[in-house]
Design goal:
The complex is a heterodimer of chains A (99) and B (324). Chain A folds into two domains: 1-68, Alpha-Beta Plaits, CATH 3.30.70.20; 71-99, no CATH class. With 99 residues, chain A is α+β, with helices and mostly antiparallel strands. In chain A, strands 1-4 form a two-stranded antiparallel sheet. In chain A, strands 2-3 form a two-stranded antiparallel ribbon. Chain A is built from three helices and four strands. The two termini of chain A are 26 Å apart. By secondary structure, chain B is α/β, with parallel strands linked by helices. Chain B has two domains: 2-151, Rossmann fold (3-Layer(aba) Sandwich); 157-321, no CATH class. Chain B has 15 helices and five strands. Chain B has helices at 2-8, 44-53, 71-76, 82-92, 94-97, 115-122, 136-141, 148-151, 157-170, 172-187, 195-222, 232-251, 255-275, 285-316, 318-323, and strands spanning 24-28, 37-40, 59-63, 102-105, 125-128. Chain B has a five-stranded mixed beta sheet. The N and C termini of chain B lie far apart (86 Å). Classes of the chains: A alpha+beta (99), B alpha/beta (324). The complex binds iron/sulfur cluster (2 copies). One iron/sulfur cluster binds at residues 13, 29-30, 32, 34, 50-56, 67 of chain A.
Chain lengths: 99, 324
């Protein structure tokens, strides 16, 4: 998404062109146009546009893409931290969002 | 044919509650053996939307169990998964219902669904459809081709405010605790130890918190692009401080109270703007994590100082204003 941008140079997206077979799946599934296809290979066109959803990595047949995927949701992250604290573990579940 | 359709379809609305419908195969219109099969979640509103957008067409709808959660969130939580789809395909006996071997998947399910693995698991291959349901007719007519404009998510004003309502719902408990905290603090001095005073001071403090809340949940999303910083928490700080200035001018009686209102409003707006990241389709885990580590201490300090200013002024009143 060119219109809205979050922080720069922070995502964990890694692309290894040597493993790419140019199937185009990453370009198809990415909701932010992060990958283009050029000369039979994927091209990492907009790394900072990535939201770490993990769709490309999961759908890449050759594991040319690696990303630590997860939801960019403050509540989920906060509950994740709180649920790591022994006593609070009972009150907070780490996966608390969109429910 | 009609009997078979009747047997497996029109079970819409018999789910466990209003937002959930029973998983399984449904018929839209009067589909046949060559009709396309669309896969979706069992969140009722999504299914309703599909029925509306695809009215007048004949196709199969394979609803998978996502526990009443929408496609995007369910894929993130991996309940909308490759295995779940394969299981539903087998349970519905889809290979006997249609002659082709292709499933149309929602693109936003891709974080949970590996299309290339589907064929091995259930004999059907997956094609990712467009992001938005209203592009589905065009996608079907274009022989299942989606251009880049159908592949990218948008986040228009109406949508930003619609998801803000979800945030309001999610924050109601937290705001209840804040309400209680405001009156408890008012009891400690700012209320002047009279019933009317405590009620007034508590309500005033909660008003500030509420203003910060509304700023973070509605004003920040509405002016998302206009506030010239990237971090949501920082956007909230700026918008909240402006709102706080306004409140201080209207409500505050002396500078310690005005400062307290300003700081508290900024802190609340920042906190809720930060939480709004959960409703946006473009913030990453790493980005939000960084934001929280950076801005939660700022929010905490602001709240502590706001409380101290408020109470100090109540306890020592004019000597504070004169002495400093
Ligand atoms: S993780 Fe998601 S947003 Fe990032 S490049 Fe892959 S598909 Fe696109
Ligand atoms: S999905 Fe993987 S193999 Fe296919 S184009 Fe993208 S990087 Fe290359």
């Amino acid at each position: 998404m060119k219109e809205f941008r979050h922080l720069e140079n922070i995502v964990t997206l890694e692309y290894h062109p040597d493993k790419c077979v140019g199937c185009g799946a990453c370009t198809t599934v990415c909701p932010h146009g992060v990958f283009n296809q050029e000369n039979g290979k994927a091209l990492l066109a907009d790394r900072d546009g990535c939201m770490e959803c993990g769709a490309c990595a999961l759908n890449c047949p050759t594991r040319a893409i690696v990303v630590r995927s997860g939801v960019g949701c403050a509540q989920a992250i906060l509950y994740g931290w709180l649920s790591a604290i022994p006593f609070l573990r009972r009150l907070f579940v780490p996966d608390a969002c969109c429910s | 044919m009609a009997d078979r359709i009747g047997a497996i379809s029109v079970r819409l609305g018999i789910g466990r509650d209003n937002y959930r419908i029973a998983p399984g195969l449904y018929a839209l219109g009067e589909p046949g053996a060559a009709s396309p099969v669309l896969v979706t979640c069992n969140f009722k509103l999504t299914v309703d939307l599909l029925r509306r957008e695809l009215a007048g067409r004949a196709l199969w709808l394979l609803v998978v169990e996502t526990y009443g959660i929408n496609v995007w969130c369910a894929a993130g939580k991996k309940s909308f998964s490759t295995e779940e789809i394969a299981g539903r395909v087998r349970a519905a006996g889809l290979e006997k219902v249609v002659t082709h071997r292709r499933l149309i998947l929602p693109q936003l399910a891709a974080p949970g669904v590996a299309a290339q693995k589907l064929r091995k698991l259930c004999g059907f291959s997956g094609v990712f459809g467009p992001v938005r349901a209203d592009d589905l007719p065009a996608f079907l007519d274009a022989d299942m081709h989606a251009g880049p404009e159908m592949r990218n998510v948008e986040f228009k004003l109406a949508e930003r405010l619609k998801v803000a309502l979800v945030e309001v719902h999610g924050a109601r408990k937290f705001m209840g605790w804040i309400l209680a905290a405001c009156f408890l603090l008012a009891l400690l001095g700012p209320g002047g130890f009279s019933f009317a005073g405590i009620a007034g001071a508590g309500a005033g403090a909660f008003g500030v918190a509420l203003a910060g809340f509304l700023t973070g949940v509605f004003i920040v999303p509405a002016f998302l692009r206009r506030i010239p910083v990237r971090a949501f928490a920082a956007k909230g700080l700026i918008a909240g401080a402006l709102m706080g200035l306004l409140l201080a001018a209207i409500l505050g009686r002396a500078w310690p109270e005005k400062t307290a209102a300003l700081m508290a409003c900024a802190a609340f707006a920042s906190w809720f703007a930060m939480h709004y990241t959960g409703s946006t389709p473009f913030t990453s885990l790493s980005g939000v994590d960084r934001e929280m580590r950076r801005y939660m201490p700022v929010q905490a300090v602001l709240i502590v100082f706001a409380t101290m200013f408020w109470l100090a002024w109540a306890w020592w009143g004019d000597s504070v204003t004169r002495g400093l």
